Amino acid sequence: MKLSKEFVLRNFADKYIAVTVNDSADEQNAFITLNKSGAFVWELLQNEISYDEILSEIIKKYDIDANTAKSDLDEFLTIVRKAGMLHE
Fold it and tell me: Which domain holds residue 57?
């Protein structure tokens, strides 16, 4: 899976906002707000990467258990899928 190149991540203070950069931005009105861990996963998704690889990186970076990491990753992926930001 990999993020669409039609979206970019911008940092404003401690907030991260993913927005569309294509010509139909007004029609789509697609954007999401991310926290630091969401921005971390966003950066991982800049290149082709598997679900298991992302999960492993989250566990390693945040030193959390696999169930918590999986739950958080699934929630994040649901959000970016609904916004049309993810290529699978």
Answer: 2-87
Query: What is the 3 state secondary structure string of 1-46?
Result: CEECCCEEEEEECCEEEEEECCCCHHHHCCEEEECHHHHHHHHHCC
- 81: three-class secondary structure by DSSP: helix
d(CA 67, CA 76): 14
Angle made by CA atoms 50, 74, 59, in degrees to the nearest 5: 65
Give the start-end residues of each E strand in 35-81: none
**pLDDT digits over 14-40, tens only?**
889 998 877 654 455 567 899 999 999
- Digit-coded pLDDT (tens) for 61-71: 999 999 999 99
CA 24/CA 67 separation, integer angstroms: 38
Total structural domains in the chain? 1
